[in-house]
Give the backbone structure.
Amino acid sequence: MPARPRTLTPDRSARHLFGAKMRAYRGSMSLERLAEIVNFSKSHLARVETAESMPPPELPAALDAVFDTYGIFVELYQLARKEIHPDKYRRRMELETQARLIRQYTPQIVPGLAQTEDYARALFEAYNPRATQNEIDDLVTVRLSRQAQLREDPEPDISFILDEGVIRRSFGGPKVMRAQLDRLAGLALTSTTTVQILPFSHGGHGLMGGTLTLMTLRDGTQVAYEESISTGTLLEDVTDFVTRNRAYDLLSASAMSPADSVAFIRSVMEALPDDYQR
């Protein structure tokens, strides 16, 4: 006797509504058949349909194509992906999707928009060792979805200033870090991205102590976002933005050029041990 489908609460959760709609539109189609069409495993689809896992970024559009639902699943996904984050971060995520220019300084970890999947997973595991595998999977999925959304046309211009500690501090071991550093080197100077490394030798500066993101939106609005370990503050006042923007410009002038940053990143990669070590 087949197990009863898990009870969903679509009136309380966008993720549950996504699963309920997926179950309803699938109808008599088996999960095996749907898995073949959308090229996802049956077990993965089952977890999405029962709201145990976040939908991966590529799935909503695939479901809309299969069920001819004119973007319903894509729209539901945009709501569901935000539920995993506290309210205080959702406004920042909404603004991020509207940005035409993003400038970010980070002192400790690779920015979320530039993280590889394995680096993000190692980071979330370190942040909360008690998290379940499903919880980690959901966080990684949402992180990757942020990156995918920023690749949509037109792509925003993104500039990163990374403290030297970002590329020195290992998450996940040498193999994971080597891939992550290679990603950063590839982003250092493209048509839409730049990466600069701020060396330890620079000493102290005005942005120490937290992460700063400066966003210029498509309508010209400029906002700043400051983040520490567990707090985030959105600064929409013009004076606050100008002050942080000036501090960022001073830091950019003191950081290595993108070309020199690539050489520096490659030298750190070469110094990584070959053996995998946590």
Notes: Residues 100 and 156 are 4 Å apart (CA to CA). The two ends are 45 Å apart (CA to CA). The mean pLDDT is 88.
